Each structure stands twice: as structure tokens, then as C-alpha cells.
Amino acid sequence: MLLYAEHITARLQYIVAYFAQHLFETPVTITQDAEKFLQYEGPKINYSKQKICENECFLQPAGLLEKQGIINFVPTVDEYLQRIVLFPQQQSDHPFDIFSALFYVLSRYEEYLPHTKDAYGRFSHEDSLAWKHHFLHLPLADIWMTDFKTAIQQRFPDLKFRNPCFAFTPTYDIDIAWSYLHKGWLRNMGGMLRDVARFDFNAVSERIAVLMRKQSDPFDVYNWLENEHRTRKLRPVYFFLLSKLQHPLDKNIHPLQKALQLLVQQIGTSNQIGLHPSMHSNESNQAFMQEVEMFKQITGGLPVCSRQHYLYFSLPYTYQTLLAAGIREEYSMGYGTVNGFRASTSKSFYWYDLHNEAATNLLVHPMAFMDANAFYESKSTSEVALQELKSLYASVKAVNGNFITLFHNHILGNASAFRGWRNMYLSFLDHLSD
Questions:
Q1: What total number of domains does the chain contain?
Q2: How many Å apart are CA 381 and CA 424, to the nearest integer?
Q3: Which domain does 261 fall in, by range?
Q4: Is position 104 within any domain?
Q5: Residues 247 and 374 in one domain
Q6: pLDDT tens, residue order, the chain (434 aa)
Q7: Are 272 and 386 in a shared domain?
């Protein structure tokens, strides 16, 4: 396939590469030579201000891909055939500039613009275009791609397309590996005193029984998960919080605890594991590098993938820090307040660094559902959460995307506060084979 553009920029090359990765089997070549484009007899896209010939797909550019730097603007949002679209174009063969629209949502352009931080200092979902225009629950970029494939296939019926398969990737954040075990006598004593002060004598009895090894720790779900994954042939990813420093939001088991190190090693023998950078590490690069080094000491190798604790990241700085440390796959692309598609896609994509106007080799894996959003933020029951989970799953399956979920070991455990959530998760896993 040949694509003509008056201006070949890093942004255009990035989006064309994205198209080639997800849509076309045929390589896409970009040219500025109008005569060469005119003479070409194969499938071709004219991405310029005016038509060149009849046997082309004409896409009129909105101008975003020709610019450099970050301009404070909000794209025009419209609706076409019951689809939300960005950068509508009246004169094109396609109703909107799909290249600019994809670049806007994938680059997370809006997160570089002035915005109000949420309580944890994160970009708020309420500032996003997807929330304001009610498409956060949809993998809209994937839907655009599916529609575009249908349209261009009608024009060029011999063009060969990729046929991706739906995939499901379960992931887990291990923030606190055990509720009582391996915390040391001081933390357990403090916890017991708090339980007494709240007159929660059931918790006191449970703590004593667990510490005396008369019953299992309520957060210990690892063997159960391993059996489920093996039976269902699932390939999970686990992320471990390994901060040495205690922080109000980083209450993990100390990474020097031998039990935690053995757990990381055990899970890592048959599963992909990654680093779960602490909230404190966002304030201190030294703390982040200490966590990277701790991962290396425990596993024998540097982490390749990561997900930020509390899904806290700030563009471009967090991603630049990850790249500098050797991280190549990132799983934080979701909101820590509401479920849905932060980048409007369910499919993995390489991050584009707007500050440096360059594509990077950091592969971003967007997630769609996190149990903590449903439990803590929406205050959903397990039954309501299951319906949300199934709805998001159906929207991803319809576009043959990758449905990534995030669950926490403590919510899937046997603690009374989370009763019903393990069964909810099992019901969803059963639903996968329906």
C-alpha cells in the first residue's frame, strides 16, 4: 500500500506503523511524490488537502499530525452513524481524520494539557474527552479501526488484512502479600490493638489463628490462582510491590522478608512477573531504582514489565523513567477511579513521547477493569461488578482485542470484607468459555 502525504512527520510515521501493526498485512510506504502516487496502481491512501486521482482513498488531514509541540486545544467531537468521532472532515472519503483521532487518544495528548489532579495527584478521568462524551466504556479506537477496515476493503477488495484473535490476560497486583503473616510482631501487635479498639474480636481471633498456623492467611490465594490458571490455560502477569520504605499508601510486606522473596521466585518460575513501583518512588528516583535493584536481587534479572501502584503515572516523566531503567512493557493504562478504556483501545501500542516528538519502544498494555474501582470507588456489590466486567469483556471481544483485568490478592481472598468477590471472579472465568 502507498500513502501520500504533503508532510512526513514523526507523528504520521507513528500512526502509519500502528495501522500496519494492527490492520494491514501489506506493508505501507509513505511518499511525498505526487506523481509517483498518481502512477501507482495498487491500493493507496491520499492523506492531503485535495484529491489526486479517482482510484484512491482520500483522507483529508485535520492538521494535528503536521504540528510539533503541545498546543492547548480540544478536538471537535461529532457523531456519524451512531459512532462518536474526532476531527470530522466533510470532504473526505471517510467521515473523520482517523489518523489524527487515533494519535490524539493513543498519545494521551489531553494528559499533557492543563488539568486538575485528583486526590492522589493523577490525571482525573473527569477531565478526559471519553468521560465528557460518554465513550469511556468503549474501545472506540478499535471500533474506528474495524469500521475503517470495512470501508477500505470495499474500495480495495484484494487488499490483505490482519485477522487478530481475541485474547484475555488476567493480571494481579500484590500490594500486601499476606494479611497477618510475615509482618513482624510489632505490626501485628498494632493491628491487634486497632481491632480491639474497634471491638472487632472476630479479627482478633482470626489473626491469632493465622499466626498460630491453625488457618490460612485470608490474602493467600496463590495456589488457588495457579490451579485456576493451569486448568483454564491462562497466562497471567503478577506485579510485586517491593518498596523498603513504608509510606501511607505503600503498606507492603518488607521485601527483605524471606517469605516474600520465595513467593516472588515461586510465582516467577511459571508466570510472567513484573515490578509494582511504589507511590513513594514517584517522589524519588533513588527509591525507584532501589526497587528495581531489589527485583533484580530477588529474581536474578531486571524487570521487563511494570505497573504503577495506584495506577499513578504522569506523562511523560513516569514513562521516561521506566524506559531509562530498562522497562519495556507497561500495564498502568487505566484509571484508578473508574473502569473503562483510558486510551480508548484494548490493544497494545507503543508510547509516543510528545515532549521529544518521537515514538518509543515502551509497549503499553491497556487494562479495562480493576476490582478496586468497583469495590472502593463505585461501591458495587460483587453481582453488579460482574455485570460491568461482562459488559467490558463483550465490547473487547467484539473487536478481537485483548481484555486485560486487574485483580488484587486481598480482594480475591477469604477476608469477610470481600465475601463474594472470589465467586464473582470464578463466574467470570466460567463465562469466558460460554
A1: 3
A2: 10
A3: 167-179+217-431
A4: yes
A5: yes
A6: 999 999 999 999 999 999 999 999 888 999 999 999 999 999 999 999 999 999 999 999 999 999 999 999 999 999 998 899 999 998 899 999 999 999 999 999 999 999 999 999 999 999 999 999 999 999 999 999 999 999 999 999 999 999 999 999 999 999 999 998 888 766 757 666 776 677 776 776 776 777 878 899 999 999 999 999 999 999 999 999 999 988 889 989 999 999 999 999 999 999 999 999 999 999 899 999 999 999 999 999 999 999 999 999 999 999 999 999 999 999 999 999 999 999 999 999 999 999 999 999 999 999 999 999 999 999 999 999 999 999 999 999 999 999 999 999 999 999 999 999 999 999 999 999 87
A7: yes
Kindly state whether residue 271 falls inside one of the protein's structural domains.
yes
* Sequential DSSP letters for 110-144: GGGS---B-TTSPBPGGGSHHHHTT-TTS-HHHHH
Is residue 160 situated within a structural domain? no
In a domain, 162, yes or no: no
Q: Bridge partners of 77?
A: 86
CB atoms closer than 10 angstroms to residue 66: 15
Q: What is the CA radius of gyration of the chain?
A: 24
Q: What is the DSSP string of 269-314?
A: TTSEEEE---SGGGT-HHHHHHHHHHHHHHHSS--SEE--GGG---
Contact 106, 365 (CB under 8 A): no
Same domain, 235 and 376: yes
Secondary element (H or E) of residue 362 = strand 358-364
Cell of 426: 470464578
Q: Is 17 exposed, middle or buried (0-12, 13-18, 19+ CB in 10 A)?
A: middle
**Calpha distance 296→255 (Å, rounded):** 12
Type and span of the H or E element at 169: strand 167-174
Look at the pTM and tell me if it is higher than 0.85. Answer: yes
Q: What DSSP line would sit under 215-241, residue for residue?
A: S--TT--HHHHHHHHHHHT---EEEE-
Q: Which residues contact 48 (CB under 8 A, 6 or more apart)?
A: 4, 5, 6, 60, 61
